[in-house]
């Protein structure tokens, strides 16, 4: 899978990772890119007022593609996930707010896939329900504009919005021109 970008959270930019004693937790995640023309399947999160790609953590011992399918089915109710192709890997260092680690090193493996247009029932975790998460089909350019406005104007934005907006722009540039 091609490497897309390494992002370092602003709070960590001046840390020398070689010499500083830090406890880093690595978390692997799979993220789905599901397009239907210019519409893309996204998760809208009310708490952060943003759009993110469906996906999440890969369980220990779980294959990346199986993790992608599981997360996509849980978060969107996707049915008949197929035609799965690698898109790219986005890595990031972010602060970690659990006592056993200082930093999380997140490796996001992004895949393009196809699903049936009709979505089934979601199986959100409690925190996802509390955050007001819901699957939506949205025009990709509207999602980009919305996230850019949130980055510029919102104090409640989450740490993932920069990654998601970078990926959305790259998806629009590379995948929509192919189908145009």
How would you characterize this protein structure?
By secondary structure, the protein is of the alpha+beta class. It has helices spanning 64-76, 126-130, 140-153, 161-179; strands spanning 3-8, 24-36, 39-45, 50-52, 55-57, 82-95, 103-114, 133-139. Strands 1, 2, 3, 4, 5, 6, 7 and 8 form an eight-stranded mixed beta sheet that branches. A hairpin with a 4-residue loop joins strand 3 and strand 4. The radius of gyration is 16 Å and the shape is globular. The two termini are 24 Å apart.
How far apart the termini lie comes to 24 Å
Query: Could you say which overall geometry the principal axes of the C-alpha atoms support?
Result: globular
* Biggest sheet character: 8 strands, mixed
Structural class by helix and strand composition = alpha+beta
| Proportion of residues in β-strands | 35-45%
Mean pLDDT: 92
The portion of residues assigned to helices is 25-40%
Tally of DSSP β-strands: 8
> Cα-atom Rg, whole angstroms?
16 Å
pLDDT < 50 stretches: none
SSE order? EEEEEHEEHEHH
Number of helices: 4
Write the layout of secondary structure elements.
Blueprint: E1 3-8, E2 24-36, E3 39-45, E4 50-52, E5 55-57, H1 64-76, E6 82-95, E7 103-114, H2 126-130, E8 133-139, H3 140-153, H4 161-179
Helix pairs in contact: 3-4
């Amino acid at each position: 899978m091609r490497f897309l970008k390494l992002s370092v959270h602003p709070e960590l930019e001046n840390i020398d990772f070689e010499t500083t004693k830090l406890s880093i937790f690595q978390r692997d995640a799979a993220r789905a890119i599901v397009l239907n023309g210019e519409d893309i399947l996204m998760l809208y999160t009310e708490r952060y007022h943003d759009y993110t790609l469906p996906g999440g953590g890969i369980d220990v011992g779980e294959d990346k593609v199986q993790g992608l399918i599981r997360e996509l089915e849980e978060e969107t109710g996707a049915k008949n996930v197929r035609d799965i192709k690698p898109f790219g890997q986005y890595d990031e260092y972010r602060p970690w707010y659990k006592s056993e680690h200082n930093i999380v090193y997140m490796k996001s493996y992004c895949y393009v896939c196809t699903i049936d247009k009709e979505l089934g029932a979601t199986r959100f975790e409690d925190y996802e329900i509390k955050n007001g998460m819901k699957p939506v089909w949205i025009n990709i350019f509207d999602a980009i504009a919305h996230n850019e406005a949130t980055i510029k104007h919102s104090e409640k934005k989450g740490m993932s919005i920069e990654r998601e907006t970078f990926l959305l722009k790259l998806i629009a540039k590379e995948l929509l021109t192919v189908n145009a």
